[in-house]
């Protein structure tokens, strides 16, 4: 893997863990989850990508259908790497499941581990709001609109709480920094 891509993947994994934990901490009365498990699952959710072909991951274009199927293998590679940590490996395996059952493995609703559902929110949000080789970053408000339009992919309760969380934490912080001239 090219060094820049490896660093960006690591940064993405760290951001997803920070966003996930921050979200759960703000909503601890509504979300009952073991934070350590969530943190490990989030910080390692894309570890399988380090075993994929760098040319595919570095593509500056939309991936072909075959390449998309290949990239999907990162969840199985991550599961295999962490098989000694059964619960964590399952969280990693299912972090691309959609709440309506249209994800990688067809799990739906509460059959998806709660940690995977939470990581899915943070993962999508971070992917939308950061530049990738094949796309520009979206603003926070546009990213949240995209997520609302794709609401079938997320637990509706968690999505609603997540949007409130992002608006209260990140949007408020952004405007406070603007006032300070940062």
Automatic annotation (TrEMBL):
Q: For this UniProt entry, which residues form the secretion signal? A: none
Alphabetized InterPro entries for the sequence: HD/PDEase_dom, HD_domain, HD_GYP_dom
Gene3D superfamilies (alphabetical): Hypothetical protein af1432
The superkingdom of the source organism is Bacteria
Positions of the HD domain? 9-128
> Pfam families per the record?
HD_5 (PF13487)
Domain called HD-GYP: residue spans: 1-178
PANTHER family found in the cross-reference section: CYCLIC DI-GMP PHOSPHODIESTERASE PA4108 (PTHR43155:SF2), CYCLIC DI-GMP PHOSPHODIESTERASE PA4108-RELATED (PTHR43155)
UniProt-recorded name of the protein: HD-GYP domain-containing protein (C-di-GMP phosphodiesterase class II)
Q: Which organism is it from?
A: Acetoanaerobium pronyense
